[in-house]
Amino acid sequence: MIITTKIKHEVLCIGLKVAILIDFEWFETSKRIQHKTARDGKIFRLKFLNENPNLKQDEILHQEGDINYLVNILPCDCLVIIPKNNFETASICYEIGNKHLPLFYEEEALLVPLEKPLFRQLTAMGFEVYEQKRALLTPLRTSVAPHGESGTLFSKIMNLTQK
Questions:
Q1: Which of 72, 60, 65 shows the shortest CA–CA distance to 29?
Q2: Using CB atoms within 10 A as the burial measure, which of 20, 24, 36, 80 is most buried?
């Protein structure tokens, strides 16, 4: 089965429908082309050629009668960082951003895929950091665009400080 577009994003209301999961690692949720096998053995080829799929937990990828095939993002080893205030949040985000690592959030915690050197660094800096197995579901999006583009929040702030 070839999938080229997503059906919709919703939290499934089971009712009479059967939900079958298609497992994804966190880093596979933005891949445009891949082959996956659902838990019932059905093989899917995902080909999102015109857009980044940005797959979300419980998103319906395919429907066949009473069967919904849903995205399931698997838990992975990650760092769970719990900042105490806004200053700590900014400092942690700065350190992670300098390493160009993906950053996720969940409730009051920041999550990063497991990186032992980052764990040692943040612990040495006095931050509350834990190693846990969690699903990385909510990426922290930034408003800063790649270098050279204008009109971002960062560029606007820089323009204000130069006047």
A1: 72
A2: 24
96-155 pLDDT per residue, tens: 989 999 999 998 899 999 999 999 999 999 999 999 999 999 998 765 544 444 566 556
Element (H, E) at 36: strand 33-37
What is the pTM for the complete model shown? Answer: 0.77
Q: Token pair for residue 149?
A: 């583009």
Q: By the 8 A CB rule, do 51 and 30 touch? A: no
Residue pair 76/113 in contact by the 8 Å Cβ criterion: yes
Give whole-number Cα distances, 131 to 98, 108, 114, in Å: 21, 16, 7
Q: What is the DSSP letter of 57?
A: T
